[in-house]
Design a protein that fits this description.
The chain is α/β, with parallel strands linked by helices. The protein folds into four domains: 173 residues, 2-Layer Sandwich (Uridine Diphospho-n-acetylenolpyruvylglucosamine Reductase, domain 3); 173 residues, Alpha-Beta Plaits (2-Layer Sandwich), CATH 3.30.70; 112 residues, Fumarate Reductase Iron-sulfur Protein, Chain B, domain 2, CATH 1.10.1060; 265 residues, no CATH class. The chain contains 45 helices and 29 strands. Helix 1 packs antiparallel against helix 3, helix 16 runs antiparallel to helix 17 and helix 23 runs antiparallel to helix 25. The longest helix is centred in the first third of the chain and has 20 residues. It is globular. InterPro entries: 4Fe4S_Fe-S-bd, 4Fe4S_Fe_S_CS, Cys_rich_dom, FAD-bd_oxidored_4_C, FAD-bd_PCMH, FAD-bd_PCMH-like_sf, FAD-bd_PCMH_sub2, FAD-linked_Oxase-like_C. One of its GO terms (molecular function) is D-lactate dehydrogenase (NAD+) activity. Pfam families: CCG, FAD-oxidase_C, FAD_binding_4, Fer4_8. It comes from Kocuria marina subsp. indica.
Amino acid sequence: MTAAPVTEHAVISRLRGSGVEVDASERRTSEYAYDASNYRVRPLAVVFPRTVEDVVATVRACADTRTPIVSRGGGTSMAGNAVGSGVVVDFSRHMNRILEIDPGTGTVAVEPGVVLATLTREVEAATDQQFTFAPDPSSKNRATVGGAIGNDACGNHSVRYGRTSDHTVEIDVVTADGARLTATATGLRATDPDDRASVLRADELSRELRALAREHLAAFRLELGRIPRQVSGYHLQNLLPEKGFHVARALVGSEGTCALIVGARMRLVPKPASALLVCLGYDTVVDAARDVTTILEFSPAAVEGTDKAIVETMRWRRGPDSVTGLPEGNAWLFVDLDGDTCEAVAGQADELLARLGGNGRLVEGIAVADPEGRANLWRVREDGAGLSSRLATGGESWPGWEDSAVAPENLADYLAELRALMGEYDLDGVMYGHFGAGCMHIRITFDLRTERGREVYREFTRDAARLVVRHGGSLSGEHGDGRARSALLPLMYSPEVLEAFAAFRRAWDPEGLLNPGSIVDPAPIDAHLALEGVPDRQWRTSFDLQPVGAAETARESGRDAQPDPWVHAVQGCIGVGRCRADSGGVMCPSFRATRDEKDSTRGRARVLQDMVRGAATVAEGWRSQDAREALDLCLSCKACTTDCPAGVDMATYKSEFFDHYYARRIRPRSHYSLGWLPRWLGIAGRIAPLVNAILATPLGGLAARLGGLTPHRALPRFARAGQWRREVDDAARSVPRTGVPSQRPGVLARVGAHDPNVPDPNAPGGQDVVLFVDTFTRGFRPEVAGAAARVLAGAGDAVECSADVCCGLTWISTGQLRTAKKLLTRAAAALDDGSERPVVVVEPSCAAALRKDLPELVPTEQARRVARRVTSFAAYVASWAGERHVAPPAAPVPRRAVVQTHCHEYSVFGPATQRRALVVAGVAEVSEANGCCGVAGNFGFEAEHYDVSMLVAETSLAPALRAAAPDTAVLTDGFSCAMQVGHVDPGARGLHIAQVLDPGPIATGPQPSGTA
């Protein structure tokens, strides 16, 4: 039933009066109006409970005011069961403790907000790798235990371990009337036996549930629990006598419609001693599905699959090296085998490959024993939902029919008919999922922006539901029904079972306040679609945000079928929430520091989506204070462009928004002091000794405050004007026959090695390169320019140094795009010399700006030509692996090093760029601080951001420095990273890799040579 409308003031006043943390701001409710589904429903407020008492107070305030309540964990629901119009209760912020790990009983006690991957990691550490927590959905590094219970999540290894319900021992809940109950394997009891009201409520509920089971014995036995992944509806078969009246499992999968979960005891499983991945290539997903029954005979732990669209998109977005080791084929299965010994598992893999080869469908199969190789291939499958949303071809795909399931033996026939049905509706789909369990995740090219497209969505989904039911399947295999499928349940279940569902819900929640619209009394599947109702307006931008394939789409349809490029860009976030992960990758440093949805890439994107939806005019939208607040702690690290499966580029969106927001306004002082830094460096360099002397006095602190900078950081020392020239000149003089004058303006000199004892640029491997000496290197680290020139010359390159132009980075990061475009236009003209010579940039941030921002801000063929040639110094060195003879470094190469991953280099040139370069250098032990350093250009120097910048440092860099041995080198190719290292650990000195490889002055005469 639908709750009666109430004033916002009443419930919020009650909540605040109870001392509960509640936020009803428009920005906050925008962040929580979405999950990972197609739906948008703005809540009244968001509550962040810290204790069970807070939850009870919230429930009572909502009950008294008849306000709906929606429970939420990681907010990754793809069916719309984590959004609603009342109060959203976010358990992930504070109620996220692991209370007890008990290897003796094989159980763990948790609060609902614990992230699944965190739970697994802590259980394995506490039990010396003997036990683990089995459910592992692809969203495991941000999805929570409470969410997994709510949806009955399964995961990649459900073939072996089943669903979350199979691992649920007890659940502590708060009911809609405030009772605190514990659901067990044999019934229901009051959590506190001295709580008289809860004791009475438990007795009453138990009687109603037992009566419900008695009344529908036959229907429950015939219609429920028929296949491994029958998640749709309530799991009322667990109330049957033969199931022991397992109320806890009956609650699993109830999607927050019966009670609020406040704690759980979950079962642990033994962790296999040895494991191996068998990767299988097929021509089609149907061929792959036909081999599943053979694979299941080998008792695999996982049988997952994906098609080529996801692989192509991953390579397009993250580079060709992001997916390696796949066998030939257009569709792939990932089969995990495990056992007691490596030899036994390897033998099992050989036997499996032989059997599948005999079936005649397998194109190629390989066994992958290496843990890193396994992890890299699993990442392709795990990022499927996001990668498939915006494809390399330029198309979009959406959930809605993304979770159907059949018995594994019926999967191939179901997929063949489903593909035919999609063809009838002129739809395409990206297929991936749990092949071994018969559950398919299919994102389909629905057009949810137009009325005709939404009509196709309605009709196709209804026909697809009939199809899966004909194959004996379920509408949902793990995502739940939510807003996407609840209205289709009458196609799957008899009226008797549907009435039993309604009675089950009424027993728990008579007023229908808990997550209304899911499972019982649903709205139509096309109600509250997020893409409906967005005004069709033009948002003029400086960045070229035209989506891939837009021109082709327009030509094929005869119209502009895509929305405005800015709208399309900010709608790229589909809510999968990878930015909320606390490990793996770099994204999102601000969320890792604050744990606030506001500071995640997803939270920011949702506010921008509501901006383009709700602003009365475009001009009003560009002045949105909510968007300004949401973007405030974005470090512009660019990591989301690589780590976000959907390819969201929040650094670009922030720059574009700030450019409009501050138009004809006074900017923050740091936008002038740091945003205009290249201009100030030109002045300061002429009087560097005087400037440095003043900055070392109390006047330096005053100058920092006047510039909007934090007084807690020492400002860097300025180099003398021309010092970098002397460094490069020295490098040129150190090589015989060098110093050849350049004929191009702005180019200092050519540095080439032509001594017979020095590598020759005309020999195999050597080439002509342009060394771009950027503003930061010229102004603060001129010695690095000389080192870089010597390294390149020592490797046989003829080096031409260019330093007369600027990449505009500081103007880009502060959203001063008119100036940035002028500088980049000038840079493109200066560097476009008609050659294909690599442009090797010393500072990674500047390299990234020239590679990525240049063609987007200056969308000309000249800019694109230059951008294609740009590479970072580390990326260029990494390309030498095994192919170059290089001059040996003058100083011994360190045996071990800590690398501060440079965010921009990571995102634009590849995640492992610096590690590969150090391997070339001969460093034996490399540990990576995989996370933003916290300074990120201007961010960490700004007074209002200093505290957060230090919290960011504590997520990765600071622990890595503390753990490093005394003789460990610290590699910081980025100037910002070097500044943070010196601030966090004054005893450490961040080095550029050019300084590690620097051969020093190259003397004439015989020289030893090294090999990269």
